[in-house]
Design brief:
By secondary structure, the protein is mainly alpha-helical. It has one domain (about 1-190): Up-down Bundle (Four Helix Bundle (Hemerythrin (Met), subunit A)). It is about 70% helix and about 0% strand. The chain has helices at about 1-30, 30-40, 50-75, 85-105, 135-150, 155-180, 185-190. Helix 1 (about 1-30) packs antiparallel against helix 3, helix 3 (about 50-75) packs antiparallel against helix 6 and helix 5 packs antiparallel against helix 6.
Length: about 200
């Protein structure tokens, strides 16, 4: 069982890599400007020091998330989660993929950095998945993180996933404060779309 789960972890890493490469190739052909924005150097866009710290924290947790769950499964650092949690994880992983990747289609300003892209004429996006929640990419990422950890049956992976979700939640407050202050029409968008992350919840 441990070997099977370790193989599952490696397979997930490979599928994630393939997904990232396909997304990158799609962006290169469809929207090179967005691709360049996605790979902008952190700190080069005028972000606050607090957001830069959150960004680095998410990256560090994300890097650990690639290796720690597989090692946890291999060496048995924590008890394995039950089979039903793995089924739930698969459902969350698949469900989270849609809002995450759909956000790239709906929002040509979907930057990993919290900044106003004045050089690209940034404006409020309120259609597609952005008509349901204000941060659909964060919603998708949260479901993918938690779902991936549950699918592997790794408690350490789940703790890392929850840490990343927590960092995203903290980031939302600072991001919305900046956008409401500096992006025209965002205050109206806050009134139009009431939920930040989870429809009818928050």
């Amino acid at each position: 069982m441990a070997v099977g789960r370790l193989a599952l972890g490696g397979g997930m890493d490979l599928r994630c890599l393939v997904g990232v490469l396909l997304c990158r190739r799609w962006l290169r052909s469809r929207d090179p400007a967005l691709l360049a924005e996605r790979f902008r150097t952190p700190g080069s866009g005028g972000e606050s020091h607090s957001d830069l710290a959150i960004f680095i924290g998410i990256k560090v947790c994300g890097l650990a998330f690639i290796y720690v769950p597989a090692l946890d499964v291999r060496f048995g650092w924590t008890p394995r989660l039950p089979l039903w949690s793995e089924v739930c994880g698969a459902i969350l992983l698949l469900g989270g993929s849609f809002p995450f990747f759909r956000a790239f289609t709906d929002n040509i300003f979907a930057s990993p950095l919290v900044r106003i892209q004045s050089e690209r004429g940034q404006h409020v996006i309120d259609t597609g998945v952005y008509g349901f929640v204000r941060h659909p990419m964060y919603l998708g990422a949260s479901l993918v993180f938690v779902g991936g950890a549950l699918l592997l049956g790794s408690i350490s992976g789940l703790l890392l996933a929850l840490a990343m979700v927590g960092l995203l939640v903290v980031r939302i407050f600072g991001e919305e404060k900046l956008l409401a202050r500096d992006l025209r029409g965002y205050k109206e968008y806050l009134q139009k779309v009431r939920y930040r992350l989870v429809p009818h919840v928050w």
